[in-house]
Amino acid sequence: MKLKTRVAVVGGGHAGVEAALASARLGIQTTLFSLSLDSLGNMPCNPSIGGTAKGHLVYEIDALGGEMGRAADKVTLQSRTLNLGKGAAVHSKRIQADRRKYQEVIKHTLELTPNLRLLQAEITDIITEDVDGKRRVVGVRTSYGEEYECEKVILATGTYLDSKIFVGNRAIPAGPDGLIPACALTKSLADAGLSIRRFKTGTPPRILRSSVDFSQLEEQMGEEEIIPFSADTDEESMKGLKQISCHIVYTNLDTHAVIMENIGRSAMYSGMISGVGPRYCPSIEDKIMRFADKDRHQLFLEPMGENNEELYLQGFSTSLPPDVQDKMLRTLPGFKDAVITRYAYAIEYDCADPTDLYPTLEHKRISGLYGAGQFNGTSGYEEAAAQGLVAGINAALALKGEEPLILRRFDGYIGTLIDDLVTKGTNEPYRMMTSRSEYRLLHRQDNSDARLTPFGRRVGLIDDDRYARFLARQEMIENEKARIEQVFARPADAASLPEGVQIPAHGASVADLLRRPEILYDDTACIDKNRPALPRSVIRTVQYDVKYAGYLRRQTAEINRQARLEEFRLPEDIDYKEIGGLRIEAVQKLSKIRPVTLGQASRISGVSPADISVLLIRLGLK
Predict the structure, then answer these.
(1) H, E, C per residue of 201-233
(2) Are 225 and 274 within one domain?
(3) CATH code of the domain covering residue 576
(4) Is residue 476 part of a domain?
(5) I want to staple 179 with a disulfide (CB 3.0 to 4.6 A). Which of 175, 280, 441, 520 is the partner?
(6) Does 6 fall in a domain?
(7) 3-class secondary-structure state, position 138
(8) Alpha helices in 33-184 (DSSP H)
């Protein structure tokens, strides 16, 4: 082999982008192979970043030194924080992004990154060899016949792996946006011993803006106060941002009737599609069938760009044929004359079993092979980017001879995401939700930097300037929390607080007042005349840290207990069949998953607390 690169990243979607940037930024010669360099960082589905739990992932990606948050801030068309009517744990930022500008920002960032080469080429083969009884990656082969010698390969194939799109009774070999699929690689992976499965997802139609009557729709405006995703984005720069409205519309009984009359023409219901679809993002025909008692379903009409006249109808994903799509669309209020610019479709693609991966995202049986994103069975840009970042970091750290980055469940949503995948696996496209984290009050968006920036600093993705700003922010937060414990209000000050609030005769500190559910930090301004001018992001964290201090202490105590099990590493060559006292199911599951720690073993379905006790005793840990 004459051509060389140390790390080969296969795929230029959100996983591949973060993987390539992380590896290159850590000083490793990296090549990103993409079917099309014009689709780097593409948003083939919704033109947005963030959302419930997904916003948390973007903040965490940024805290580790990833790129998604920085790029998203530069192309924001609208910003909203979801779930504000609920507790702080589930507050989630979501932005409408200018789809094409996002791609431009990502591509240019990649092009300017030292140690990184971009190459438009299809990877058809992963080349491996056996060394001391274990297979390892030694190269990749392109459709042009070129072979690149490499030490690490990161598979970030998205929904392109042997993909087909379905519209009605038509099945077309294609990737998202009509791009070519990667049809040859699956065989190479299967021959190498990977377990391949088939998943499915879909996308709604795009609609010409001028053909919609917005007067019949409900307008959804952006928030006035925008706190950016990235610590590298100046909060002041987001003020006065010109935002574009989204709109809400609902299906009706006429819409449902059109769908039911033609349900047999849907690829989903005609038997053409064999792949498993996402439970939490079903097609519109799936919603109608599964929730027959509902008279309507909410849809969101979203802009795709500042200089783009196409609109995205979120919630209207379908694989029905074009004539039915036109007919059912025109039953919606305001859509009587709507013109479709791109028809909706379902897409099937190959992916792998994530339980074959270590928490580093390296394959257990093929050294040097990493998986990230939809290749690992997930859905969503944010989940993909998070995995790509971790895979890229760990590939680079391995080549540098440094300790890997293993994020645990109690470190944040990225740790939870990866632990779910490699420990429990998934039988459908996995989507991150706040309910998946048992420590979600500690894993808020606003404290992502406190939890993960030290990790980013340790691996080398957080530079001196960024780290100094991080330390300054943490100091501001701690100083303000200490200060408001010493600022007291008198009973007479209650008049300036929200109606009904009373202050005891001996007074109360601002911190004591803030612990009350009905009082926010801004409400105490009138009785705290000397408060410093602080960034809104700092105020937000101070408010939540103080308000939920009791709950946070309890969750921290639980984490400390769980951390004990994570400290106990299991031998790589342990033979569970030889350990007496383990139940048969536990032996089977432990042998398949090969957990790294006792903590991971305890989370495997089918492994009981009694089995963990047996392991503790057998390993002399109890």
Answers:
(1) EEECCEEEHHHCCHHHCEEECCCCCCCCCCCCC
(2) yes
(3) 1.10.150.570
(4) yes
(5) 175
(6) no
(7) strand
(8) 54-64, 68-74, 99-111
Confidence of residue 240 (pLDDT cuts 50, 70, 90): confident
What count of residues does the chain have?
622
- 326-352: buried (b, 16+ CB within 10 Å) or exposed (e) per residue? bbbbebbebbeebebeebbbbbbbbbb
User: What pLDDT is stored for residue 280 in this prediction?
Assistant: 67
Q: Is there a domain that residue 535 lies in?
A: yes
Q: Give the residue among 360, 273, 353, 366 at the shortest CA–CA distance from 317.
A: 273
Look up the domain containing 325 and give its range. 206-347
Q: What per-residue confidence (pLDDT) applies to 268?
A: 79
CA separation, residue 89 to residues 235, 305, 380, 444, 450 (Å): 22, 30, 21, 5, 15
Band (pLDDT 50/70/90 cuts) for residue 292 is confident
> Which of 57-66, 512-521, 548-557 has the highest mean predicted lDDT (pLDDT)?
57-66
Instruction: Tell me: do 213 and 333 sit in the same domain.
Output: yes
Strand ranges (E), 411-524: 488-489, 508-509
Give every strand in the sheet of 48-50, ordered side by side: 48-50, 92-97, 76-82
Same domain, 301 and 230: yes
**Strands 7-10 and 152-155: what pairing?**
parallel
Whether 547 and 584 share a structural domain: no
For residues 534 and 474, membership in a common domain is answered with: yes
For the record, the structure tokens of 475 come out as 């100091």
Task: For residues 219 and 309, state if they share a domain.
Answer: yes
Question: Where among 495, 527, 552 does a domain terminate?
Answer: 552
Q: What's the token pair of residue 458?
A: 């340790």
Q: For position 191, what pLDDT does the model report?
A: 93
Contact status, residue 92 vs residue 48, Cβ threshold 8 Å: no
What percent of the chain is modeled with pLDDT above 90?
Answer: 85
Q: CA-to-CA distance for 112 and 465, rounded, in angstroms? A: 20
- Residue whose C-alpha is closest to residue 251's, from 285, 290, 313, 297: 297
- Would you say residue 622 has pLDDT above 70? no
CA 282 to each of CA 176, 297, 393, 601: distance values in angstroms, whole numbers, following the listed order: 18, 12, 33, 32
Q: Write down which residue in 552, 581, 601 finishes a domain.
A: 552
Residue 392 has phi, psi (to 5 degrees) of: -65, -40
pLDDT confidence bin for 47, thresholds 50/70/90: very high
pLDDT digits (tens, 9 = 90+) for 97-140: 999 999 999 999 999 999 999 999 999 999 999 987 789 999 99
State which amino acid sits at residue 6. Answer: R
Q: Cα separations (Å) of 453 from 25, 64, 231, 467, 534?
A: 16, 5, 10, 8, 21
Rounded distance between C-alpha atoms, residue 165 and residue 159, angstroms: 10
Tell me what pLDDT residue 572 has.
84
State pLDDT tens for residues 409-454: 999 999 999 999 999 999 999 999 999 999 999 999 999 999 999 9
Residue 411 lies in a domain: no
Q: Output the CA–CA distances (angstroms, integers) from residue 433 to 50, 84, 256, 280, 430, in the order listed.
A: 12, 16, 28, 10, 10
Does 461 score more than 90 pLDDT? Answer: yes
In the structure encoding, which two tokens stand for residue 438, read together?
Answer: 């048992």
Same domain (yes/no): 211, 340: yes
Chain segment 304-323, per-residue pLDDT in tens: 999 999 999 999 999 999 99
